[in-house]
Amino acid sequence: MTGRPVPRWAVTVTMLAVLVGAGLGVNALDANAPPNGPIGVRMTLGRDSVVHPLQVNVSGARAYETILDEDENPLETVGVWVLVDLSYATTDEPSLPGDFVLVDARGRRYPTTGRAFGEWFASPDLWHRGTLAFEVPLDALGDLTFEAWPSGQGTASDTPMPYAVLKLRVDPGAVEAGPAILEEPELLPAGER
């Protein structure tokens, strides 16, 4: 039994339909697949946020030209200092608090300063209050994003893990001359942040 030959246009239309269907299927799978990288958890200013194993509460941010270290020596910078006031604890076992980063509107990332400041050891439900210092250029001020990463995970991880994200506004016209004094972190009474 011999049939009529299939017209070329029918083969072309069938192949095109298969390709479009495959493309739509891949897009649907991609949109519903689990993420391949870190997952940002939104924080609210002045409220507790949990990003296991970290609990964080940011109360504000401000900028200074000069700050004093823990020994009251002035620390100057080419840009400005952004100070972020926060309290934190862990959820299950004692650990270092994590990695904290400020990101400006251009996407530039600024870790906490490594100059003359020690680590704060966090414990479950034992809240500490203190101030983080970030050195940033003056043009970074304005809309900033504060990120809190679980300890030891770093900010360059491609592991699907949560990290805390908080939008902050530090007015470039409100930079204080200072010097600001960074106090030692304090252990807080139960229920205080």
CATH topology: Immunoglobulin-like
Give the CA-CA distance, first to last residue. Answer: 85 Å
N-to-C SSE string, H for helix and E for strand: HEEEEEEEEEEE
Helix content: 10-25%
Count of individual domains? 1
Cα-atom radius of gyration: 25 Å
Q: CATH first level: which class?
A: Mainly Beta
Protein name: DUF4352 domain-containing protein
Organism: Occultella aeris
Tell me what you see in this structure.
The chain is mainly β and 193 residues long. The chain has a single domain (39-187), classed as Immunoglobulin-like (Sandwich). Helices cover 13% and strands 40% of the residues. The chain is built from one helix and eleven strands, in the order αβββββββββββ. The protein has one helix spanning 8-32; strands spanning 39-42, 49-51, 54-68, 74-90, 99-103, 109-111, 128-136, 142-149, 162-170, 180-181, 186-187. The strands form two sheets. Strands 2, 3, 4, 7, 10 and 11 form a six-stranded mixed β-sheet that branches. A five-stranded mixed β-sheet has the order 1-9-8-5-6, with no helix packed on it. The longest helix is centred in the N-terminal third of the chain and has 25 residues, at 8-32. The N and C termini lie far apart (85 Å). This is DUF4352 domain-containing protein.
